[in-house]
Amino acid sequence: MSIVSREDSAERVDDAVPPRARKRLRPLMWTLTVISVCCLGAVVSIVQLLSDQSNGEDGNVVLAGCGTNVTVDPNAEFPEIGPYDSEQIGNAAIIIAVGQDLEVPVRGWVIAVATAMQESGLTNHGHLGDANDHDSLGLFQQRPSTGWGTPDQVTDPVYASTKFYEKLVKVDDWETLPLTVAAQSVQISAFPDAYAKHEPLATEIVNTLTGGGANVSAVSTELGTCAQPGELSAAGWMIPVEGPVWSGFQTPERPTHNGVDIGAPRGATVVAASSGTVITSECNASLYGAPYSCDVDGSPEVAGCGWYVNILHAGDYLTRYCHFGSAPLVKEGDVVQAGQILGYVGSSGRSSGPHLHYETHLNGDRSPAGAVDPVAFMQQMGAPLG
User: Helix or strand or coil: residue 95?
Assistant: First the structure.
């Protein structure tokens, strides 16, 4: 399919797109190119719109990464992802490509795609008669009557995406806000909490179309920058505490060690790795079957995590943080944001010295059966440990 579906699109976006971007967007036919580089062993990709002035054929989709180039049939359709068909995913590709062209960090692509999923189901709606919400139109259901542009403009995916990003980047701290808050700051929707449920699939769509682009925190002139300590990845994750991984996941020496031990000093701040809801915040230390204080250092003879927290995240991911030196700063039922302080490194429970024991689980399963290797999990989420 062509990236821009109507022949007059290049003319109508001129007023919306900055001069630097306009120079690249003017040609009528487009090539959607995925340019990849290697980052810490993972593929990091950027979607880029490049003009194709050589012929009138539909745009090629080219994947180029780490020395490998794969050219897809020019007539191939975009993949179906979840409930979205090829045309809808093509609209997502436009949103992503415009975000890259405007040099919006990758987190913005996820927010924009999730917003369009909620507003239009990734369908470029024209006027729907009685089904219209006032005069809302296009992928983002932008309203001409409130200053978004003319009906022709807001039903142009390139223009609509550009206007969304222009407003998004003006929101204070938008990259670290929960997706639903960032989206609502732009859209001012009657249903402000509706965007959050789309974040996992929006991240998957961005990852699929960019070969892993949602695993990085930003697109910069250096390219391929992965999330650094204290930074939020595009998928909405960050490392819980800075330090080396001392002990691995289910090693031969410790097959029941269902997490990793991060070597952080006593008193180091532990933060939520992603936004979610606290489902456990308690002391579970015991010695020979009797309760044991979590306000003192434990030992290898003591059972339990000591002071610990479980958080349930979007996508039914669960994270666990063990061995705090004092009671956690959050309680069961609290909704926390990525980077919010949970407590401080200590050595309560079964511990031979200060560190953070950190676990990641799938399907909301807090038992050992749900545990997966945090190193691989956090790498996938764009926030590598260590």
Answer: helix
